[in-house]
Amino acid sequence: MGVMALDELRDLLIRHARPDLGTPIEDVVIFKAERPRPPAPTTYGKVLAVVAQGTKRFALGDRLYEYGAGQYLVASVDLPVTAHFARADAERPGLGVGLTLHPEAIAEVLLQAAPGALPELGDDAPPGLAVSTAPAELLDAVIRLLRLLDRPSDIAVLAPLVKREILWRLITGEQGAIVRQFGLPGSSLSHVARAVRWIRDHYAQPFGVEDVARLAGMSVSAFHRNFQAATAMSPIQFQKQIRLQQARLQLAAAPGDVAGVSRRVGYSSPSQFSREYRRQFGVPPSQDARRLTPARDRDGSAGISA
Fold this sequence. Notes:
Elements: H1 2-16, E1 28-33, E2 40-44, E3 47-53, E4 55-60, E5 63-68, E6 71-75, E7 79-87, E8 94-100, H2 103-111, E9 129-133, H3 136-147, H4 152-171, H5 176-183, H6 188-201, H7 209-216, H8 220-231, H9 235-253, H10 258-264, H11 270-281, H12 285-292, H13 295-298
Antiparallel strand pairs: 1-8, 2-7, 3-6, 3-8, 4-5, 4-7, 6-9
Helix pairs in contact: 1-3, 2-4, 2-5, 3-4, 4-5, 6-7, 7-8
C-alpha cells in the first residue's frame, strides 16, 4: 500500500501542479520544485503538508526539521520558518500537497466524536508544528481528495466529505493533540495563537510581554511557557523573526532604502538591524538587497519578479 500509494500521489501531483500552486479544490495547493533552492524565509501557518517526493528542510527558532516522501507536517500557528527543498531535480522534482486547516472545521469534527473516543488533553500547549510518518489511512484520504481533480464535477459534493475524513485521521493520529487543541477555542494553543496574530499584526511596535499575556488570557508565567512550547521562541524572539522577514521582503522592493526599511520594521538602531539581519540571513542587508534584485532591474530595465 505504501509504495503504490506514493506512486499514485506523485502521479497526481505531477499531473496537476501549476506555477501558481493553486488547484480547483478550495484550500488545497500543490508544490513542485525542480531543483534545490537556498533556504528562504516563509510562514508555515495552519496547514497539513504531505511530501510525496524529495526532502524538505526547515528551521524554526533553534530547532531543525526534515521531512520526506510519505511524511507529513502539521502546523497550527502562523510560524516564521526558513525552509527549502534540499533534494530535488528535473528528473525527480520535490513534490507535496498542502491543505489549509480551519479551527471551526476541526471543532465541528470533534463535536461528532463519540464520548470517550479521544484521550484527555493536557493543559499546556503542544508544539505548534510537528512532523510524522503518514499512516496508510491518511495517505489514502489525501489521494482520494486529489483524484477529484480528474473529475471536476465531483469536487463540490465530495471534497468537503474527504476533507472531514482527513481531519479525523489527523485528530486520531500521532499529532492529534496539536490538531485538537487548535480546534478548541479555550485551549492553551488557541490562546497562544491569539498572541501570535497580535504580534504579527503589530510587529513594528514595541510591546510589554505582560500586555500580550493579558491579551492572550494567560498569566505571564503560563504565557511564557506555552508560547515557547508552541513556537520554539520567546515572544521577543518571535517578533524579531517577523521583523527580519518583513525587512527582507521590503528590501527586495526597495534595495536602496536600507535605513528606511530598518525604521519601518521597528528598529531604532541601524547598526542593530544590520547585525541581526546578517546573523539571520548570512550577509548584511545592503548586500542581500543586491542579491535579491535581478541585475537588469538595478539598471531600471525590468521589474521585480517573484
